Every structure is written in C-alpha cells, then in structure tokens.
Amino acid sequence: MADKNCIEGWRQYNADMSAYEELRDDVLKDAEKAGLSAKRLNTLELGVEEIAVNIISYAYENGGSLWVRTSKEDGFFKLEFVDHGKPFNPLAEDMRPTDGVPSVEQEEGGYGIFLVKQFFASVSYTHEEMFGKMSNHLTMELSV
Amino acid sequence: MAGELIQEERKLENGWTVWMVRSRIDLKTADEVYKRGEEIIAKSDKTALDMSGVEYLSSAGIRAMLRLNKLARKSSKEFTVVGANGMPKAVLEDSGMDVLLKAKESVDELI
C-alpha cells in the first residue's frame, strides 16, 4: 500500500514529532482503502498514536528513522513498525493493576501499550536484523 | 483530521460544575484539556467532565484525567466523567478508569 520512500512497501519517516501527523494520516488512508469502518479507524489511530509516539519519544537519543508498512491479509489490517533504536519490547510494559482497576496513585505511564494489547487482535514483537541493522519490529493486526 | 477543541462549562444548582469537551482528547489536545481542568477544579468543589461530545480518546487523555483526579483528591474535591460513548467509553472501561473515576452515563446522574 505504501507509495513513497519505499523498500518493499515500507515507508520511512524521521523519528520526530514533526513527522507524526503525516505518518498517522498515511496509515489511516491505507486503512480506509482497505475498508476499515469509522469505528475501526479510531481504534487503529489509537494504536498508531501509542506506538509511534513511544518510538519517537524513547527509541533514539540522537534521532533516527522509523519505518511503517501496512497490508491487508486474511481479513486483518496489518500494521508494522520498525526502528533501529535501543532494544525495547513494549509488550512487557503493561501498567494495569492485576485487579483491573487503577489506584489513585497509579503511575501515569503504561496505559498506551495496555490499550493496544486490548484492542488489537494480535500484537507481536521481535528483535531482528532489518534494513541493515538490528531492529525493534512490532506487528499489530486489527480485524477489518 | 481533528475538529477544533471546544470546552464549555456550566454550574448545576447542586454544586457540580459540568465541563463539556467536544472533539478529541489526544496527544495534541491533552495538555490544553488538563490546563482547563486545573482551572475548573481550583474554583469548584465538584467537577464532572462531560465526554458526550468526545469522539477519540488516547492514553494521553487518560494521563490528563489521572492527573486531574489526583489534583482533586489532594484538595478533597470530587472529579468524575459523564456521558462517554463509543470508542472513548471502551477506552475508559478497558483501562479501568471508569471505575476509578466513578463514571456516569449522563449528566442526569449528577442531579
């Protein structure tokens, strides 16, 4: 679905907040073309915001790139993020208390990843070589 | 992508200040929403954030609500949310924030 800065369908962006809205809008346009409903688009946007902002905020100390690819497979809209930042498995960051209700003193972080895990059909993480370097590779699937 | 953030407030006879937010509470607007909430909590003992006009809520919005809730409790004041529906309601429920904030279906439940 990608049509710019492509390596086999991947789009490349600066891992910088100034690139966030373009990245988000590109993904949402792909999803519209794939036939996601308005409700699903809101859920997808939540995933894009939580993951992209996390990468932009924490992956690099001195700037870098992030790559995004979308596809539609077997009734799912698939979204992948890759970065060359420090190894980080966001799926290990779940701040939700075990009883399901946050306390008043609950830390303010961790909700984003938790919500992504809740709303997406699947989320997986690998640390592997991509684009010539070891990479964080996150894959999320949302039913169409 | 987003409509303009609109925030309005009105006082009920029983002391609740109903603070209506329209549009989205996300990365871009959460700070603005927090600042307005801070001002309202400073002058009201009971504040209800009316989310019936909110169409999108991300964790940035949840963090703002957690901070406002802490702020209110520090001053022995009340803070709650009312009228969330659709995606924002699902986000509140799945994060457990609906229980923490004693979320209500509508403004009528404040009366």
Automatic annotation (TrEMBL), chain A:
Please indicate which superkingdom the organism of origin belongs to. Bacteria
MF (Gene Ontology): protein serine/threonine kinase activity
Q: Does the keyword Cell division apply?
A: no
> Which residues does the UniProt record annotate as the domain Histidine kinase/HSP90-like ATPase?
15-129
Q: Which UniProt keywords apply?
A: Kinase, Serine/threonine-protein kinase, Transferase
This protein's record includes keyword RNA-binding: no
Gene3D superfamilies attached to this UniProt entry: Histidine kinase-like ATPase, C-terminal domain
One Pfam family, please name it.
HATPase_c_2
What PANTHER family does this protein's entry cite? ANTI-SIGMA-F FACTOR RSBW-RELATED (PTHR35526), SLR1861 PROTEIN (PTHR35526:SF6)
Record protein name field: Anti-sigma regulatory factor (Ser/Thr protein kinase)
Q: What organism is listed for this UniProt entry?
A: Schwartzia succinivorans DSM 10502
TrEMBL record, chain B:
Q: Which domain of life is it from?
A: Bacteria
Q: Name one Pfam family in it.
A: STAS
Q: Which InterPro entries match?
A: STAS_dom (IPR002645), STAS_dom_sf (IPR036513)
Q: What residues does the STAS domain cover?
A: 6-111
Q: Which protein are we looking at?
A: Anti-sigma B factor antagonist
> Can you name the source organism?
Schwartzia succinivorans DSM 10502
Molecular function per GO: anti-sigma factor antagonist activity
Q: PROSITE patterns from the xrefs?
A: STAS
